[in-house]
Amino acid sequence: xxxxxxxxxxxxxxxxxxxxxxxxxxxxxxxxxxxxxxxxxxxxxxxxxxxxxxxxxxxxxxxxxxxxxxxxxxxxxxxxxxxxxxxxxxxxxxxxxxxxxxxxxxxxxxxxxxxxxxxxxxxxxxxxxxxxxxxxxxxxxxxxxxxxxxxxxxxxxxxxxxxxxxxxxxxxxxxxxxxxxxxxxxxxxxxxxxxxxxxxxxxxxxxxxxxxxxxxxxxxxxxxxxxxxxxxxxxxxxxxxxxxxxxxxxxxxxxxxxxxxxxxxxxxxxxxxxxxxxxxxxxxxxxxxxxxxxxxxxxxxxxxxxxxxxxxxxxxxxxxxxxxxxxxxxxxxxxxxxxxxxxxxxxx
Length: 348
Description:
Shape: globular
Radius of gyration: 24 Å
Strand content: 15-25%
Oligomer: single chain
Distance between the termini: 31 Å
């Protein structure tokens, strides 16, 4: 939370939650939680004090008081700085969520003359950020300046976990049906492409059989990545072994290694559109079998969906469908929104 909210925190101090330690008279207040999270993020009490606009002894006193109230040490000093103990890591995680929820609540209830307000945290797949991040931010800022957007990028599996944990309001995931905890609305189905240096001369109108692609050294997503699971499944259907040259957990690293001559790779069309336009890479759709993924917009089933989240979800969907319509999302086709049946999701 910003420093200018400190007065609101003081006003809420009397409503702090009693701890389980002792006779129940001790309380954990918001200033202690803020100091706890800031030290964990900054790695030192000195830097945390600077960020909080407090003197160092005041921050140290807040943490010592919190440790006494909880009855456990929260930090240990190392050569690299202050590191949370196991108990401290649990407290930091829970404190960060509590502070975020308080900040979101303030943003929602703060008077704004009828304008839409709130904090909305959106999870984007790494492959979609170049296409969607800037247009989404621009559109929301123009139509709803009272909404604060926070964009997070990660693999589909990580985004799904953050959504389940309440750290995201909505996220783009793939190959996911609705689950007991999440609603998943299908938006786009896209092909996976074999990607090579421009000199290889791969072309969109000349699909490459998967067995032929598998015979080349490949720069692959790391195991556990959902894209890797798709590729492995396609290899099994094609009866082809993979010649893996190197593995990485970053799409951008995949492309850099291809450019450096370490092998070819397999990526979704949305992740290479700019590279093909720039002429730095060449690519062709995979076939025999066709390999594709379904992109869904996922939201949590738990609790009330704030109006600001609904607005951003609609705008994100609009941006995706517009990108597909104008050809900005390579080899993608829109999917009608159909009721999905509960099922388990893939990892990665």
